[in-house]
Amino acid sequence: MTDRLIKVCELCLKASCYQGKDLCPNWPNSRLRLKTIAELAKLGLEHPDYWCRAVVLILALVSFSPAGAHSWYSAGCCGGKDCHPIDSCDEIARDGDYYVWKGHKFWRGNANPSQDRSCHVCLVPHLDNDGQLDEPTPTCIYLQQGS
Predict the structure, then answer these.
(1) Predicted TM-score (pTM) above 0.85
(2) How far out from the chain centre does Cα 52 lie?
(3) What is the DSSP string of 44-85?
(4) How far is it between the farthest Cα atoms of the chain?
(5) In angstroms, what CA-CA distances link 85 with 75, 91, 124?
(6) Contact, 39 vs 110, CB < 8 A?
(7) Pairwise CA distance, residues 144 & 74, whole Å
(8) Lowest mean pLDDT among 51-55, 108-112, 121-125
(9) How far is residue 53 CA from its own chain's centroid?
């Protein structure tokens, strides 16, 4: 996990700046730089939550998140930013230590009880090295009681 690459502002080395949440003074002249989680932890410049949600400002502005209606989403998962209900809990299969939904594997340790009658998934979007939207990372899943 500490080897995972995070996109940061090349000038201030913060993911929050790259995401458009806490812009440094020189952000208009900055480009993308990749840093490992271990490198960012040593720098200690920002809270690690930003390393789990490395998305660009534009994606945040155009994305719709139903999380506002679901204030019970765990901050430890994605803070409600990337969670959404799914059509049917029947779409989720069990595979050993994982729950699988549409090819995305959620470790059972990241399963939480749903606070409504729906199942929910949290998929964090990422950009590839070329700045294109890449396959999202499954972070946690909310299941109906007894699932």
Answers:
(1) no
(2) 5
(3) T-S-THHHH----HHHHHH---GGGG-TTS-TTTTTTSSEEE
(4) 52
(5) 17, 12, 14
(6) no
(7) 15
(8) 51-55
(9) 4
What Å distances lie between residue 93 and 48, 77, 101, 121, CA to CA?
31, 20, 7, 13
Contact 53, 19 (CB under 8 A): yes
Distance CA 112, CA 47 (A): 23
Phi then psi for residue 91, to 5 deg, are -75, -10
Q: In this structure, are residues 17 and 48 in contact, taking their beta carbons and an 8 Å threshold? A: no
Q: What percent of the chain has pLDDT over 70?
A: 69
In this structure, the number of other CB atoms found within 10 A of the CB of residue 17 comes to 24
Contact call for residues 8 and 35 (beta carbons, < 8 A): yes
CA 112 – CA 119 distance, rounded (Å): 10
In the chain the beta strands, taken as DSSP E runs, fall at 5-9, 32-36, 83-85, 92-95, 98-101, 104-107, 111-113, 120-127, 133-143
pLDDT band at 105 (very low <50, low <70, confident <90, very high): very high
